From TrEMBL:
L-aspartate binds at T119, N123, D124. This is Argininosuccinate synthase. ATP binds at A8, Y9, S10, G11, G12, L13, D14, T15, S16, G117. It catalyses: L-citrulline + L-aspartate + ATP = 2-(N(omega)-L-arginino)succinate + AMP + diphosphate + H(+). HAMAP family: Arg_succ_synth_type1. Homotetramer. Belongs to the argininosuccinate synthase family. Type 1 subfamily. GO terms for cellular component: cytoplasm. GO terms for molecular function: argininosuccinate synthase activity; ATP binding. Pathway: Amino-acid biosynthesis; L-arginine biosynthesis; L-arginine from L-ornithine and carbamoyl phosphate: step 2/3. L-citrulline binds at Y87, N123, R127, S175, E259, Y271. Residues 174-390 form the Arginosuccinate synthase C-terminal domain.
């Protein structure tokens, strides 16, 4: 029996060329797996048929949109996951889900190898292969673009030679990856980090300077999970999709970042993530209202480490699982509503409401009805300052 290669298939040039290339190079049968994570674009049935037309013996399309939102985007939201304090892990979140479905397909169709279209310069090769090593170490990995130093010109020539049913003449100046959580754009003139991005780069967001009326939205959370918009119960996927439209219309979520890649280089990346940035801002503010100070302080460090692990492709690592448990516990009281104004490229919180709120009006007010006992403050300040006072006295004696 021939080897069977399960290919992470996008329907684009590189992965379409990979089908006959792997068949020719290895004498293998190729099973193409396309995973819908809300990336939009071409109809997934068209992509499925294209894989067959390119020579795949099986072609599978997985509708993972709701799964991706609930099992990957929501945990990232609960962790307020922003790599380098800015990037909401758009691509990094989708890779472990795709790996799960590659492994499932390998077991269903008797796959012996798994293949992806990543180059040796990017983070995704690590995310795919670290995930595969954890879930199915028996599967061997083939990365044609990396291992055989493909260039676009070589891929186009091979596609024309084989008569593949893909448009090999269209050339985008950018490399783009997108899903429901956001969109990543790189390469082309963006590689000169002095060049500013032009409006044509963006697809999820409108020009923030454009004239439009502000949009007010109320987001409801239950234990850190978004469950409703403006009182309408929706799934996480539906909420992210609607906020992509509404916040995107106001230019919310544009990010221009020189990023520290896992492979050791710096890379200029443009991101747009209107739904993700809006939800993270709302979730952070609800945590400010409902999470006790020491827990909140500690969680900020946990959130950062969680984010780094996911960025680095370690979704299935023991530390990541342990941090998941901590974050879940920290979400016990993160229930309530956040009101926001979307306008001019910003998502601004204007109201908070929660039955689990730790904000006590009678303690916080400076007006009549203040129940805070200010007479307790003098002794508290003296005791709090005492170690520093003693140390300062010592230092002046030396």
């Amino acid at each position: 029996m021939n080897d069977r290669v399960v290919l992470a298939y996008s329907g684009g040039l590189d992965t379409s060329v990979a089908i006959p290339f792997l068949a020719e190079k290895m004498g293998a049968e190729v099973v193409a797996v396309a995973v819908d994570v809300g990336q939009g674009g071409e109809d997934m049935e068209v992509i499925r048929r294209r894989a067959i037309d390119c020579g795949a013996v099986e072609s599978v399309v997985v509708d993972a949109r709701e799964e991706f939102a609930a099992r990957y985007c929501v945990p990232a939201l609960q962790a307020n996951a922003l790599y380098m304090d800015r990037y909401p892990l758009v691509s990094a979140l989708s890779r472990p889900l795709i790996v799960e479905h590659l492994v499932a397909a390998a077991r269903e169709f008797g796959g012996t190898h798994v293949s992806h279209g990543c180059t040796g310069k990017g983070n995704d090769q690590v995310r795919f292969e670290a995930g595969l090593a954890a879930l199915a170490p028996e599967l061997q990995v083939i990365a044609p673009a990396r291992d055989h130093a493909w260039t676009r010109d070589k891929a186009i020539a091979f596609a024309e030679e084989k008569g593949l049913p893909i448009d090999v003449t269209k050339r985008s100046p950018y490399s783009i990856d997108q899903n429901i959580w956001g969109r990543a754009i790189e390469t082309g003139f963006l590689e000169d980090i002095w060049n500013g991005p032009s409006e044509e780069v963006y697809a999820y967001t409108a020009d923030p300077a454009g004239p439009r009326e502000p949009d007010e939205v109320v987001i409801t959370f239950d234990r850190g999970v978004p469950v409703a918009l403006d009182g309408r119960a929706l799934t996480p996927f539906e909420i992210i999709a609607e906020l992509n439209d509404r916040a995107g219309a106001h230019g919310v979520g544009r990010i221009d970042l020189v990023e520290d890649r896992l492979v050791g280089i710096k890379s200029r990346e443009i991101y747009e993530a209107p739904g993700a940035i809006t939800l993270i801002a709302a979730h952070m503010e609800l945590e400010n209202v409902t999470v006790e100070r020491d827990l909140a302080r500690f969680k900020r460090g946990v959130d950062q480490r969680w984010t780094e692990l996911v960025y680095d492709g370690l979704w299935t690592s023991p530390l990541k699982r342990a941090l998941d448990a901590f974050i879940a516990e920290a979400q016990r009281h993160v229930t309530g509503e956040i009101r926001m104004i979307l306008h001019g490229g910003r998502a601004v919180v204007t109201g908070r409401r929660s039955e689990a709120s730790l904000y006590d009006f009678s303690l916080a007010t400076y007006d009549t009805g203040d129940t805070f006992d200010q007479s307790s403050a003098k002794g508290f300040v003296e005791l709090w300052s005492l170690p520093s006072k003693i140390a300062a006295a010592r230092d002046t004696r030396r």
